[in-house]
Specification:
Order of helices and strands: EEEEHEHEEHEHEEEEEHEHEEEEE
CATH class of the largest domain: Alpha Beta
CATH superfamily of the largest domain: DNA ligase/mRNA capping enzyme
Largest sheet: 7 strands, antiparallel
Distance between the termini: 19 Å
Oligomer: single chain
């Protein structure tokens, strides 16, 4: 079930609030004796995160959880960039469960959210050190202060009586970001001495992929190599962005348009790879100010990436 982005959190007694986690959305299922960690793209992440799959072996057979795979920094905050180093950061990785969809073969998705939360708490909490259960509050004010103080991503609000509707954004689950950041699709790169000098990224509006920024900051040698490995076999001849080329005027943010001349330096790729980006703000011409690369989103489908509120 998906969350609808909102500019302001809802009010009322029929909502609960959870901290928005910065990680991989995961469906964890146990069929017979086998636990599988499924990404949103229906890919198994068992090979990368086998230790989390092993930790979930306590689950009864024919049980399904929804949650987030996160890596915690020294202050206990989820850091998506740490999750990229899943081998060296294995001791920091946790699976945080926030919903239960099936238990011992019984379908729970039509139960009210609070009833599912009670079952989840009873069946999962304190069963393994790498497996956590998300907490929630009935009011957002205190949690919002904590999110801002700890520089977390934001809050999730859910209707207390909501059923679980896979794939839906019906307004009963909403997300509110405190920091600025979202996923974008890679449509090209500028080669450099370290494989990649910059990534050209954008979002979908209908069928059109719209360019927003040439991304240069936030990379490490390791992340450049990982991105290059993902896109080197996706090279195409034509630009996939519907709004390029642009004029060469300098914007008030100091950036310059992606002109035809500059585009000759770009290697275009099929828009398949999704990356996480943090930035200060959107500009008036739908570009990004002070954007930086955070990590690769293997759990996201490129066609689902749109401009978030």
């Amino acid at each position: 079930m998906l969350c609808e982005p909102v500019r302001a959190l809802p009010r009322g007694d029929d909502w609960i609030f959870e901290i928005k986690l910065d990680g991989f959305r995961i469906i964890a299922s146990k069929l017979d004796d086998q636990v599988t960690l499924w990404s949103r793209n229906a890919n198994s992440l068992n090979r990368k995160f086998f230790y989390i799959a092993d930790a979930l072996n306590f689950l009864p057979a024919d049980t399904i959880l929804d949650g987030e795979l996160v890596a915690l920094d020294d202050a206990g905050r989820p850091q998506f960039s740490l999750l990229q180093s899943f081998r060296s950061a294995a001791d920091r990785v946790r699976f945080v469960a926030f919903d239960i969809l099936r238990l011992r073969g019984r379908d729970l998705m039509n139960l009210p959210l609070l009833e599912r939360k009670e079952i989840l708490d009873r069946e999962v909490r304190d069963r393994a050190p790498q497996i956590l259960v998300t907490d929630f509050e009935n009011t957002a004010a205190a949690m919002l202060r904590e999110v801002k103080q700890r520089k977390l991503e934001g809050l999730i609000a859910k209707k207390v009586h909501s059923i679980y509707e896979p794939g839906e954004r019906d307004g009963t689950w909403v997300k509110h970001r405190v920091n600025q950041g979202q996923e974008f699709v890679v449509g090209g790169y500028i080669p450099g001495t370290h494989r990649i000098e910059a990534l050209l990224v954008g979002f979908y509006r209908g069928k059109d992929l719209l360019y927003v920024v040439s991304l240069r900051a936030g990379f490490t040698a390791e992340s450049r190599e990982e991105v290059f490995t993902k896109i080197k076999d996706l090279v195409i001849d034509d630009c996939p962005f519907a709004n390029l080329p642009q004029d060469g005027s300098r914007s008030r943010w100091g950036g310059e348009g992606m002109t035809s001349e500059k585009m000759r330096k770009v290697t275009w790729v099929k828009p398949k790879l999704v990356v996480q980006v943090e930035f200060v703000e959107w500009t008036g011409d739908t570009h990004l100010r002070h954007a930086r690369f955070v990590g690769i989103r293997d759990d996201k489908n490129a066609k689902d990436v749109v401009k978030e509120s």
